[in-house]
Amino acid sequence: MQQDPHAMAPSPKVSVQLPRDLCYKEHVPSEWWYYNGHLSDSDRRLTFHVAFFRQRTDSVRVGRWLPLRLFGTHYWCAHFSLMDLQTGESWFTHRRSLWWHGRAERDRFKVRLGRWSIEGDCASQRLRIGPTNMHLDLHLSIRKSASLHGDQGRFHKHPEQECFYFSFSKIDAHGFLKLNDKELPVQGTCWMDREYGSVTMAQTLRGWDWFCLQLDDGRELLIYVLRSRQPSNLPPYYASLIDQGGKAQFIPIGGCNVIVESQWTNPATRNTYPSKWRIELPSLAMVLQVQPLLQEHEIDTRGSTNVLFWEGPVAVSGTEEGQCIQGRGFVELVGYDSEHRIGTFDFACQNMPLLGLAQNQLANLCTVCRGIQAVPRRVSTRSAKHPEGGT
After folding, report:
1. Which residues on adjacent β-strands are paired with residue 211?
2. Which of 74, 250, 281, 384 could lock 4 by a disulfide, CB 3.0 to 4.6 Å apart?
3. Mean pLDDT of 203-226
4. Is the Cβ–Cβ distance between 283 and 316 less than 8 Å?
5. pLDDT digit string (tens) for 184-207?
């Protein structure tokens, strides 16, 4: 069997252990908790994604000279997007904070940024975003054990970086969504990713295309296509097939081809993204067509993680050994923004503008003192307007 080159070299260091490694890790440079999901009520189909990020501020400076750690040891931010597949509308809002608005616990899984939070364990979790006029409250029931990527969760994106990566690829969800003062009961399925360690993007990395695909037969497919600025010893992608029990089967090099079949350009930003894919998996005798459900869904995170990227739901169809298969999933495309490349994002993280820091923290303080949450602006995917900036 071919060795997974994204797995780290053997060492005495402990690999992923659960539920311990769901929890906040104070001393690692950066970490995140990511969720996406497909939801429905009686007559609407909705999708969402939520991500919580934390980065240590040890090496970050404000205005190039003032250490950011004087304002706080950790930089927190979070994203939330919601899409209505019936109307073609989408909403996005994000948060960031340096001080007491961001909190997490070491001995149990609980992460909070203002009134946004996630808590639970490896069996069940609760995700709450709000309250605003766009409030999501979900109870999550995890139906598969964690899939550990690389070598028992130890994963390489760059030769000089050490990180840990695992997924809960099948989660049942139920709860409610409050949208424009109307409360909707919803249910559906979700995916969770957890990553921590040295996960800031190297200057040599141009970006990535990330696919999480949930097949109707109970399996899932994870594909990470890494786009480098210069030659690398690591292969350009990582791919694994997750079986019904949650075990990730590494797909050997040469066993996965991702072919872009069409593109979409946002007229507002002039950024061009892949918009339809053919995925060939010869070792599995599988060919998949992956099609966005909402094509126009570029997300603007200037004010939190400072990049523009595409993320959204996709439909999956194809064949395996001549038999038809279907599914759905999510795709994330990073590094296609002509003005805010990954390198610019890293540079922004290391040198935060003083005025931007002061403005953001003042807005956060006013929000908490008044008990008011920023109202996310509705973004019509047909007009491709910019999402609202963060607070």
Report:
1. 223, 331
2. 250
3. 90
4. no
5. 999 999 999 999 998 665 566 778
**Shortest CA distance to 161 belongs to which of 196, 127, 192?**
196
**Residue type, position 226, single letter:** L
More confident residue, 103 or 40: 40
For the chain, the structural domain boundaries read 20-380
| Paired tokens of 318 | 């194809």
Distance between CA atoms of residues 248 and 6, nearest Å: 13
Strand partners, 90: 83, 379
Taking the C-alpha atoms of residue 373 and residue 299, their distance in angstroms, rounded to an integer, is: 20
d(CA 235, CA 225): 9
Q: CA 158, 161, 166 angle in degrees (round to 5)? A: 85
229-265, pLDDT tens digit by residue? 766 666 678 899 999 988 899 998 889 999 999 999 9
Fold classification of 20-380 is AttH-like fold (2.40.370)
| C-alpha span between 213 and 219 (Å, rounded) | 9
